[in-house]
Each structure stands twice: as C-alpha cells, then as structure tokens.
Amino acid sequence: MVSDADRDAEAAITGLLAAERPDDGLLAEEGSESEASSGRRWVIDPLDGTTNFLYGLPAWAVSIALEDGDGVAVGVVLDPVRDELFTAVRGEGAWLGEERLAVSGCESLDRALVATGFSYEPERRAAQAEVLLRALPRLRDIRRPGAAALDLCSVAAGRVDGYFERGLKHWDWAAGSLIAAESGAVVRPLPGDPAGLVAAGPAIVDELMALVG
C-alpha cells in the first residue's frame, strides 16, 4: 500500500537533501534514486508503517539513514504520533531526544518480549506462521506493531527485548539497525531466502537466532 503521504514525504525529504547535499546519493522506498559522487548515500523510508497510517493505527515513522564506505554512519527515526525522535551516530551511542538509550538486560529467552513483522505475500506468511508455532512457547510473548524502524528503536529503548523479521528492504532497517546497535543490541543478518534481521541483547541473541533462523 502506498499513500499520497508516502510520496509527499519522500518528495520533501529528497528535495531538501538535493539542495543541501547535491553530491550525495539517494535510495528511497517510493523510487527516488541517484548515484553519489561524495561516497555517501541517504537511505529513506518516508513512511514506515503505511498500512497502520491508512488504518489510523498509531505505529508509523519516518526513517532516514546516511551511509558511507564503512556502512551506516547516522540513523534518524521520527515517530510523529508520540513526538519521539530516535537518533544515532556511529560510535557515539543512541538517543531518544536527550536520553541515552540502552538495550534491555533480559538474560533468558523465556522472559523475552520479542517484536516481529509479517510479509503481505501468502506463501511467506505461511512460513512465518510456522516460525511462530515454534517460537511462541519459548518466549514471554510476541508483539507485531507493523513498522520495522520502530521495532528496532523499541529494542534500543528496552521496550522489547528482541526483534526478528524476514523479507525487509534496505530502507526498512538502515536507520533502525544503527540505533539498535548503538544502544548495545547485537544486530545480525538472518541467512536464507528471504534474508532477514535479528536484533537483541547480547545474552539472548544467539538463542533467538537459533529459534527463528
């Protein structure tokens, strides 16, 4: 699903970046793309959680990351509904406003509250249901807010203990993965087809990977 808000937000963001950073590249969900001459690229999800937005559910965000030759250097996720701004700079920690973030100290998978997301493709959803059948008895519970960027920020803020999902696009996780990592979470790729991502505290990440991989 795509709304006018997705397109308008992308146009506003890419227009500003083109004016302020004309030598940087762009990759955005709704099709904006340009090559860089500076060695830097902006990765933009102008409205992560479009279905929530269209249904009036308050879980959607704007996600912007800056990449350089070493990966994601800056991540910013704005939750306009809650007026929360999550930020991270590589090597300098993760922040919610002026509050420094830290991943939860959960040490046991059976006490872990874990977020995830589902594909809109029926075959993938069936495979994800099989993972849930295996995972639910081993976890405290699962949450499905419906916006990957916010899920990763929730890991960073200790609001959930972990997160996993397959079938993500680069713009879904670019900013949020840095924010989670800079909070102390371990962020790892989920191998396979489709590929995915796991983010969790150091004490449970190995078990979570084994459970949902």
How do you describe this structure in short?
It contains six helices and 13 strands. It has 213 residues and is α+β, with helices and mostly antiparallel strands. It has an eight-stranded mixed sheet. It has a five-stranded mixed sheet with strand order 10-9-11-13-12, with helices on both faces.
- Second CATH tier, the architecture of the largest domain: 3-Layer(aba) Sandwich
Number of domains in the coordinates?
2
Q: What is CATH's topology name of the largest domain? A: D-Maltodextrin-Binding Protein, domain 2
**Largest sheet geometry:** 8 strands, mixed
Structural class of the helices, strands and pairings?
alpha+beta
Shape: globular
Helix content range of the residues, please?
A: 25-40%
Going across the major beta sheet, what is the strand order? 2-1-3-4-5-6-7-8
Order of helices and strands: HEEEHEEEEEEHEHEHEEH
Q: What is the CATH class of the largest domain?
A: Alpha Beta
- Tell me the Rg in angstroms: 17 Å
